[in-house]
Amino acid sequence: MLLVVVGGTAGYVGFGYSVLDALFQTIITVTTVGFGEVHRFGRGAEIFTIVLILAGVGTAGYTFSVLIETLVEGWLADAFGRRRMVQEIEAMHGHVVVCGWGRVGRSVARYLRAAKADIVVIDSAPERIATVEGPCLLGDAADEEVLRAAGIDRARVLVTALNADADNLYVTLTARAMCPELLIVSRAATEPAVAKLLQAGANRVVNPQNLGGIRMAALAIQPHVAEFLDVVMHDGSLEFRLEEVEVGPGSPLAGQTLRSARVHDRTGTLVLGIRHRGDTFRTNPPPTAEIAGGDVLIVIGDAEQVRALRTLAGAPAS
């Protein structure tokens, strides 16, 4: 289109038109508005105009149609895309809200997706949120409206993975005030922030630097154990996985010992630990250890075995 306009203007200038008159004549010719000739055409100008019409009218029509199509489709695609995302988030229940799409947030999301968990990501930077694949929201994670739009009232867990401790603290306070029963896992960049985040309402506080140091030390001292735990927890290449299973109050397991419950015989899973409600873990529990409603069993087994145990643990006693 630019070449047609420049060529048409230069051609009419060659026939004695001023630059403005030549540009005007070119524009009204290729757009077919029909204002008439600026100056009376001679034989050469008529032939040139015929060529300009044949070359320019189609070019102008195609250019305008592509421009309008791009603008309309781009706007509509963006609007419909946002609407689909809102509907997808509104349909979620028991999902995980991840606040912050930095290195820690992306790592959290990668493992959650490997575990088939639904995720909604919140970040305040447009360039970062544009790289998220899946439901996401652009905004301040400490804003109640943003958290509400992420479905925090229907979420299972909130993960605050922002860079600054103050930001994680503010998000934790806001989320705890909105949802008293929500499980909140917060990131801490410094040791003093751990106690403050716990006081603000976080259920668990993680310092990535400390965890990285612990893992490196474990690899240095017990490399096979550390690698085995990594494979079982995150790799997925082994058939067996470590899982946690909560025992329902009406489950036939409640009130029995490990021996009488015959967990391994009935499901194939191996119980590695038991955590009574509000208590510490009891690792390698003996056969006489009692199971109560609300206990959490730490077990190892394949997917089918764990599924069978979840069914047994959640089923009401007959």
Distinct helical segment count: 13
Percentage beta strand:
5-15%
CATH class of the largest domain: Alpha Beta
Q: What percentage of residues falls in helices of 4 or more residues?
A: 40-55%
Largest sheet, spatial ordering of strands? 3-2-1-4-5-6
Kindly state the number of beta strands: 10
What count of domains describes the coordinates?
3
The general outline is elongated
Class from helix and strand fractions: alpha/beta
Remind me, CATH topology of the largest domain? Rossmann fold
Output mean pLDDT: 87
Compressed to H and E, one letter per element, the order equals HHHEHEHEHEHEHEHHEHHEEEH
According to CATH, the homologous superfamily of the largest domain is NAD(P)-binding Rossmann-like Domain
Radius of gyration: 33 Å
Cα distance, first to last residue?
80 Å
Largest sheet: 6 strands, parallel
Which consecutive residue ranges, at least 5 long each, have pLDDT under 50? none
Question: What is the level-2 CATH architecture name of the largest domain?
Answer: 3-Layer(aba) Sandwich
Can you walk me through this structure?
The chain contains 13 helices and ten strands. It has 318 residues and is an alpha/beta fold. The protein folds into three domains: 2-87, Helix Hairpins (Orthogonal Bundle); 96-206, Rossmann fold, CATH 3.40.50; 239-314, Alpha-Beta Plaits, CATH 3.30.70.1450. The strands form two sheets. The protein has a six-stranded parallel β-sheet with strand order 3-2-1-4-5-6, sandwiched between helices. Strand 1, helix 4 and strand 2 form a beta-alpha-beta unit. The radius of gyration is 33 Å and the shape is elongated.
